[in-house]
Predict the 3D structure of the following.
Amino acid sequence: MRARSEVVAAAPRLRLDTLDRLARGGAFTPPAVDPRALRVGVVHLGIGAFHRAHQAIFTEVAAAAAGRDDWGIAGVTQRSASVRDQLTPQDGLYTVRERGHGAAPLQVVGSVREVLFGGGDPATVVDRIADPAVRVLTLTVTEKGYRRDGSGRLDRTDPEVCADLAGRPPRTVVGQVVRGLQRRSAGAAGPVTVLSCDNLVGNGEVLRGLVHDFLEALPEAEAAGLADWIAASVRFPSSMVDRIVPATTDDDRAAVRAVLGLEDRGVVVAEPFRQWVIEDDFAADRPAWDRAGAVFTSDVAAWESVKLRMLNATHSLLAYLGALRGHDTIAAALADDELAAAADALMVEDVAPTLRAPDSLNLADYRRQVLERFANPALRHRTVQVAMDGSQKLPVRLLGTVRDRLAAGAVPRQAALAVAAWMAYVAQGRDVRGRELPLDDPLADRLLAAAAAGTGNPGRLVDSLLRVEEIFGADLPEHDGFRAALTEHVGRLTANR
Ligand code: CS2
């Protein structure tokens, strides 16, 4: 007899033809546009779950609202071929499952028309970026995908960056962008907008700077004329993206199979909320994302710092403190009164005084909404997922607040608690129940070595980790008030462990 799970697994795969045969109505929402008619107009680097639950939906809704068939997406997966292997046999289709209060029915998205594996087929990525039909290149490659050094410039000691500079088909993100632009300029493919959607301060400006760093490092003859062409034909607007997208589980795939009767290996999960604020600075045509709810503005910086400093910083605080205390999810961490108080205090005492809220935003409402979203019990967003890549996230989310407060003469005790919780997480590697806490971070080896040098003494541990200059710069270790606050928190967090 076959096991029940095998019978279920034999459901036909989600594809254009199997989707066509499904009865419409109620249980799921089909693509808002006809995927067969869509032509590629956007290349997206980093087609993980976040892109599929965010920009891909905005783009599909925008195309439907504007009656356009030229804004399909070619997505590039960077580090592994798995998204390509999930979506290609499904004609690019996948389902979004919202979880939580106000969740919409399952939604099948059809805006992704092609998935390329950058690691395996880098030349094709360059070709796609250089296609004249493409007018927008978007990115979600995470903080570490930008390969910056401690001063925020392109890391020219990175062997992958060096190999891309030497002229192989590019495998780094900045290499792909520059080589794609180079090919566009040679082929007269026309202007293009490069739109970063990562959680970085001034993400458009950052990316433009890295592109210029790459150009500067190229041999003179190769770069000649390219910088001028980029200045004339390319824009790098900044944007703030927001949607909580936890990792997909077997449960989610089973729920989709139960409703569609089809197997979807590309299911993504999201909270009902989504937001996108984009600097209105485009080199050419763009999807009517405003028709899908996005906001175009000339002042994205204010939105971005509110989001990074309020939402993401508090997320990290809850992730590290929560994981140490044995809470598996962000919602469980927030249900712990002490941690809820710390989350609120971080936003009220340290973050709010550093912010300039956009005109239409009330910070107190924003704070309440963030906490409500984190409390969503159906999301089951894991603390260790948010805890990953701390070395990349801390400077963006927390250290701007720390520096601003110190400059104003205040000791940022609450922000220090978040940083201290990260230090304790790195140093202890286990939660209160003795379960292992993964250190998933590009600097993991250095961090572990630094933590080992400070074992058993909170002051030494703080000093040792503060000396990781890529994270804390040369200034923060020199600040006695900040050091003392960190040491006190770390002492408490690591006592009796
Ligand atoms: C989270 C973000 O994993 C993390 O670090 O803080 O991914 C967060 O869920 C999103 O930025 C929300 O927009």
